[in-house]
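thread from #wetlab-drylab

HS: before we spend reagent money on co-crystallization trials with iron/sulfur cluster, can we at least see a predicted complex? here's what I'd submit
DV: go for it
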Amino acid sequence: MFDFSFLRVYNGTTMISQEKLRILTESAKYDVSCSSSGSERKNKAGLGNGYVAGCCHSFTPDGRCISLLKILLSNDCIYDCRYCPNRASTDVERATATPDEICELTIDFYKRNYIEGLFLSSAVTKNPDYTMEQLLLTVKKLRTEYNFHGYIHLKGIPKADEALNKEAALYADRMSYNVEFPSEKSLKLLAPQKNKQSLLLPMKTLTAERAQFREEKKKGFIKGHFLPAGQTTQMIIGASPEPDGQVLKLSQALYRKMDLKRVYYSSYVPVVQDSLLPQKEVGQLREHRLYQADWLLRFYGFSVDEIVEENENLSLEFDPKCAWALRNMHLFPVEINRAPLEMLLRVPGIGGKNAHKILEARRYTTLTFEDLIKMKIALKRAKHFITCNGKYAGAKNEFAVRGLLAAAEQSDSAEQLSLFPAFFGDTFPPVSERFLLRSSKANALTALTGQF
Amino acid sequence: MMYFFDGTVNGFLTAFVQAFLDTNALLSSRVSQLPLGQEPITVTTDEKLAARAEQRLCAFDRNAKKDLSALLRSGEEDAEQAAFAYFKLLATKKRPVSRMFSEEAVFRATEILKRIGLEIHRFHGFIRFTECASGALYAPFSPDNDICDLLLPHFKARFPNYPFVLHDVKRKKAAVYDGQNVFVAPLDKADILLSADEENWQTLWKQYYTSVNIPSRERLKQMRGYMPARYWQFMPEKN
Ligand code: SF4
């Protein structure tokens, strides 16, 4: 059959209606993953390229970054996940866009520099295979017909045919399957049509395929891309009873075993009434603490066991690094002029950037507290854990340290919440690759733990 | 004494040499900073002297030239003075000083460079193009630092098929990509004819911006921190 699709390309007539855009955006907005980093896609002849560091194009009044056009292809779902506003049994406005509507929207937003690319997802319409086919069709069109080389994050549909997933991976920069809950029990209860297997299997397959693809590309056997920005996932926090320790154990396993780039934590927003779900929004402090702990796992050389017990929550009173230091007072104070990087990174109040600044500066001179102040290194917390050229300027005993740290936490908790880059994804990475200090393979978890 | 120069790299270097031994030297190219009732020394740019100074500074630190031209792009009040202090330190120490963070001069110069870098990064995101009837893209903006030409490589790589204009309305100049070459040209006011669909796309963008927000989680302070209000003027979603 003759392909007439060229008649629809770039003619401006497939402009999506404002109504449809509203519905499909509102249905997608609770998904927190908004990062656009990690792709180095080069522009050949068309429109756009990747931006390795990621890029925010706007910020909404809720303080979140707009990087990608985050939208559903359809919100008309046959599944009935209890927590989801689009579930089959609710009465909401339904809409479905055509692949061309999404393509045009992406192109026209992109060329006005509104967005960095597309984050496309969909409710399960008709059946998983059909839905995945539509998603695949959209990204394929966008790359091949519309010549779009900007960022594409595609959310995979659980239970769809493996071949469809693999083909989609050739066009998308990043794919994600959300594990949703840290235990299979909660998943069964709250997302009855999904199961652990349907979420983990495609992830595993894609991880393996990606590794193989990269291997062969290195040897020069094949060209092209296969998820250059890898995979991510998301967990909903607070809709189910699992403690932070269990959540982070799973994250650690996903980072180490599945080579995931990010795990996102999304504190549960009760948009639907359901007897199985809490009616209260989880405090954002909990989400914030999880991101801080996640940061320690990925960039500061910590492992979960050091941060929190599996059956416990993170301390809300102290940030995870402070809490760890308070439990390990015997390791402190450390001498700022001699401590190795690994240890500097573990001093409360000293981040990756400042640790490296200290390393640089101490090559030229023996650092004093005055020098640290001149370097604008905040000492409010750090001073209790360091000596400068033998001098100690912190509180006299552990009890006093505790009190002062708690006060410090209180006084800037509001500010800190707003400064922490959780919502950037990795868009403004405060620590770059060179700070990456993963723990050794030896103490890596040997398997995906417990439930999952 | 105040040394008043023309704002160029060579002007700065000339002033730098003249002011070097003056312990109370103030360097500026901004009329607004001229002290009342005090006669400034007006520095006449001496290309040869400047070239020699540059050579010496670069011999101590090969990044000196790059750092200097970057520092002079800053919109900070004290940028030129900070550059003076920084290069004076370099000339005194006679070796790279850029990592001596406990030196006030190094700290401040680094700070200024970082701000410029941050603003460039921000505008990679905050630039808003409007589509003209011809298909060309036009983006007016008003950056704190003189950076319009520094945005060219990014957008040229991204939109190789679209001619575009990045118009710094405050400095009345524009960085241009005509589809083949990039250049900078003076531009006071641009006369543009919008494409037929431009307004519709802007409306859709505003709709998207409204819909993607979660009103129950309002954090205006955070929004303003990341996207300062002075940048909003040219963003359709904020107007
Ligand atoms: S599959 Fe579940 S979570 Fe996804 S749209 Fe349908 S009901 Fe919502």
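DV: The beta strands of chain B are 2-4, 26-28, 41-42, 130-131, 137-141, 164-168, 173-177, 182-186.
HS: ok that's useful, forwarding to the group
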